[in-house]
Amino acid sequence: MNYQIELRHFIYFLAVAEELHYRKAAEKLFISQPGLSTQIKQMEEILGTQLFVRDKKKVSLTPAGEFLKKEVEFILNHLEQTKKQVKLIGDGQLGEVRIGFLGSAMQNVVPNLLLGLKEKYPTVHTTLEELSNRAQINAILADRLDLGFVRLSRVPKGLDVKPVFEDTFSLVLPAAHPLDEKNFKNINQVANEDFILFSQDYSPMYYDTVLSICEDSGFVPNVSHKSVHAQTIFKLVENKLGIAIVPTTLQHGFQMKVKFIEMKNIKQRAVLSMVWKTDNRNPALQKCMDLLMKL
């Protein structure tokens, strides 16, 4: 009998691939376990390859199954987003743009973009999600985001990246620290202090840039704490557990007992870039990018 791959095959396959357990996958799908097994076997016959390795103790994906899992996740996610876009466009809207961002982008770039959209393209819907650089890249590649705001100079093949904002760096000190804007000369004055940085996994480019700022002054910083949240970093500084170096715009919106000294005379800059998938056909994405180029 000749069968054809249908959408249900993908849905059944993904359930088993995620659970790696036929009974749990069947319960999730509200179908019988024998019925699910039959559908997976049929799919393997159509594709002419084995997708799962089964024994009495466990179920695991074959290399072909691992590849197919990633592709099916993309296909189903893209299909769901397409359905949403069709509904919005059918209702007279321009569509939805899913935006990922680092926390520092919320200081100016993202709010300005949202205000610009509201004024010029009020029928563009947006969703926002704060994510690390790596998580944004993975989400864009998997078609879970349309646009990201990252601190990266290079991105994987298939993505485009363009700087949208350049910021200076500022030293963050406890309010009672003897250094201030009048007597601060260079970062070497705090070479013996403990440093609190954004996690390297959260933003590798930021982490490396901060290290280069210190190395240019002849020392390697002692990093005592790391975080992915500016508020946590500032709280640690406030409690005299170390000092920090952050993009200058991050000083806005926090009421803590810390002070900022802008380091205007160093060559390093905190560059925020937008990143998107080259072949993204979302009609509303271009509206966002056009606005960003004018900010």
TrEMBL record:
Entry GO terms, CC: protein-DNA complex
Q: Which GO terms describe its molecular function?
A: DNA binding; DNA-binding transcription factor activity
Task: Please name the SUPFAM superfamilies in this protein's record.
Answer: Periplasmic binding protein-like II, Winged helix' DNA-binding domain
Task: Extract the Pfam families matched here.
Answer: HTH_1, LysR_substrate
Keywords, A to Z, come to:
DNA-binding, Transcription, Transcription regulation
All copies of domain HTH lysR-type, residue ranges? 5-62
Q: Which family does it belong to?
A: Belongs to the LysR transcriptional regulatory family.
PANTHER family named among the record's database cross-references: HCA OPERON TRANSCRIPTIONAL ACTIVATOR HCAR, TRANSCRIPTIONAL DUAL REGULATOR HCAR-RELATED
Q: What is this protein called?
A: Transcriptional regulator, LysR family
- Which organism does this record belong to? Allomuricauda ruestringensis (strain DSM 13258 / CIP 107369 / LMG 19739 / B1)
Taxonomic classification, please? Bacteria, Pseudomonadati, Bacteroidota, Flavobacteriia, Flavobacteriales
